Amino acid sequence: MLAAFRNSLIIPDLRAKLLTTIGLLAVYRLMVFIPTPGVDIEILKSGALGQSDIFTLLNFISGGNFEQFSIAALGVIPYITASIIFQLLTSVYPPLEKLQKEGEEGRRKITQYTRYAATALGAIQSIFLAMALIGPSGALKVGWANGPFFWFIVMLTQIAGITVVMWIGEKITEFGIGNGISLIIYAGIVAAFPSALAQQFTLIQQGQGNIFGLIVYLVLLVVAIAGMVLIQQAERRIPVQYARKVVGRRVMGGQTTYIPLRLNAAGVIPIIFAVSILVLPTTVLGLFPNAVWAQRVGYWFTPRRPEGLFVSTLLIVAFTYFYTQISFDPRRISENLREYGGFIPGVRPGQPTQEHLTRITNRITLWGALFLGLVNALPEVFAWITRTGSLPFAFSGTGLLIMVGVALDTLRQLETQLTMRHYEGFVSKGRIRGRGRRF
Which string of b and e fits 55-78 if b means at least 16 CB within 10 Å? Predict the structure, then answer.
């Protein structure tokens, strides 16, 4: 890993991509210091709602922006929710399915529709937050009143923040290294990790924590992270044989390769999707802060409680299957193999190959989904066993999975870029030698 980063700093264009990624993430982190007009942050923090589950969960996903209620308080949640909606619609709505098959132009239109939907969702969520969280808590500055004008200002500010965050994420994906939206979430979690660790040691010094339990918990987390890396890198290789063809005096084909099927082909997308879905009900339930039924229903959407942990695990397993079905198409791979004269040894081309790949994918996805669900629940189970009490969300299974998954995915893309540069250099040297022989 260190060698990959060292080599990337040597190559000028890769160094530029790394600096672009770091610079755009720094811009996103600076947005935490731009507050929403009319909101008194200190009253919001000290109020009872400042310690609510909705506050903690949103603050965890937004990387501290919600705690300051900055212009990026909602972070990437509206964009992720809109992406889920459009991916579902693409599978069941024929016009969108047709648009997706049109290639780059169709995907560009779907992306544009996703932006519009994310902006609309962000506007709705910001109004709900202004009405349910800020207004009733009295966290307003002098001269501001809780009413339609304040709600409009909050909505307008949050729409601007969502637009900037979407732009930063897309530019990181286009000009940087890695997935921009995933890296934004990753940067927020990493930024919260040191303060969360310092908070635990402060509680221990005040006699409110268990030092032995915390040490055991951290050791168990290191073991769990090692397991995450091992599983994330695991893959099933399906052998593929290409038939030989004789063209004139040349023999073409006859090569043996493989199709790599990752145990966790969905990566961290299911976790991000699941957390985004959990945020929506808690936002709506915030409109009823004093209702007992709303509090009981909210327990099922709080990952730190047993009920919420069960729901989040089910959502992660379901989204793992869903995203794997979207990203891996056995029918298309079967058609490509038959077109280029490839076949899986012992399996007929065409429909039997498609069924064979589907059967293997379903089995692998089952274990990958169970792994993600298990790791999501393990940190909370460790906390209960070691009696370390309620730990920050940075130590949760969701946060650890996102950190490990995004880091591995970014490193994989970086190594791919390095391999491409290596081959490009090799080809360019060959061209130089060829020109020398001609002259």
Answer: bbbbbbbbbbbbbbbbbbbbbbbb
